[in-house]
Design brief:
It contains four helices and three strands; from the N terminus they run αααββαβ. With about 150 residues, the chain is of the alpha+beta class.
Length: about 150
C-alpha cells in the first residue's frame, strides 16, 4: 500500500517538473527559491541566536550587579557643592543669603530665608543628598535671632 503511494508521489513529482510546457520554468523557480529559503532561515536563526546571546549577557550583568557598589565618601568641598546644587535648583531660593559648609559628612546651613516653611524644606533636601550624614540647620527668618549650637 505504502509502496504504491510512494510510486505515485514519484510519478507526480516527475510529471510536475518534467512537463514539456512548464517543467523548465518550474525547475528554474525551485533553483532560485530553495537557496533563498535557506538564506532566510539562516538569517532568522542568526537573529534568534543574537537575541538569545543578548538576553544571556543581560542576565549575567544583572546577576553581577545585584548589589550597588559602595561609593566613596566625597570630600567636603564636593559634598557642599552637591548640596548647593540640590537646594538651589528652585529659582525662589535666595542663593546669596544661604551659606553651605561641609565637614566630614556634616553639612551646616546658615543664613536668612523669607518663608519659615522653607527652613525645614531645605533641611529635608539636604538630608537626601548622597554623602550627607548629618545636617545642622542654622537658617532663620529676618527679624529673628540666628540659632546657635
Amino acid at each position: 500500500m505504502f509502496r504504491k503511494l510512494r510510486y505515485m508521489a514519484y510519478g507526480a513529482f516527475l510529471a510536475y517538473f518534467f512537463d514539456p510546457e512548464n517543467g523548465r520554468r518550474r525547475r528554474a523557480l525551485v533553483r532560485d527559491r530553495v537557496p533563498a529559503m535557506f538564506r532566510q532561515g539562516s538569517r532568522k536563526a542568526g537573529k534568534v541566536g543574537g537575541a538569545a546571546t543578548a538576553q544571556a549577557s543581560a542576565m549575567k550583568q544583572k546577576a553581577t550587579h545585584l548589589k550597588e557598589e559602595e561609593k566613596p565618601q566625597p570630600d567636603d568641598v564636593t559634598l557642599a557643592r552637591k548640596v548647593e546644587t540640590e537646594i538651589f535648583r528652585d529659582a525662589d531660593i535666595p542663593k546669596g543669603r544661604i551659606n553651605v559648609n561641609a565637614e566630614n559628612g556634616k553639612v551646616v546651613l546658615r543664613g536668612e530665608v523669607e518663608q519659615p516653611e522653607l527652613i525645614k524644606d531645605l533641611e529635608q533636601r539636604t538630608k537626601k543628598v548622597q554623602g550627607v550624614q548629618e545636617v545642622e540647620n542654622l537658617l532663620h527668618v529676618p527679624g529673628t535671632a540666628a540659632p546657635t549650637t
